[in-house]
Design brief:
Elements: E1 2-7, H1 13-22, E2 25-29, E3 38-43, H2 46-56, E4 61-63, H3 69-75
Antiparallel strand pairs: 1-3, 1-4, 2-3
Length: 76
């Protein structure tokens, strides 16, 4: 599995819904200011998901192991 981390503010609602359909699992990590809320997409098909993100110009981070909440907060 691959874990794609995307800031909530970087996605429109239609983009979010499209990516959600391609992911095995979608989680929302909600943080207090000044940290941005994040989407965590769990994906099996790495290449297809990356292609979609790159075509849409969506910035992302990716990990091969699920990051802990504290790692997500520090990273963003």
């Amino acid at each position: 599995m691959w874990y794609f981390i995307i800031r909530q503010e970087d996605l429109s609602q239609p983009q979010y819904e499209k990516l959600q359909k391609k992911a095995a699992l979608t989680e929302v990590e909600v943080f207090n200011e000044p940290h941005p809320n994040l989407y965590l997409f769990t994906v099996e098909q790495y290449a297809a998901f990356v292609d979609e993100l790159d075509l849409e110009g969506i910035p992302y981070d990716v990990a091969s192991e699920r990051p802990e909440r504290e790692e997500l907060r520090i990273k963003n």
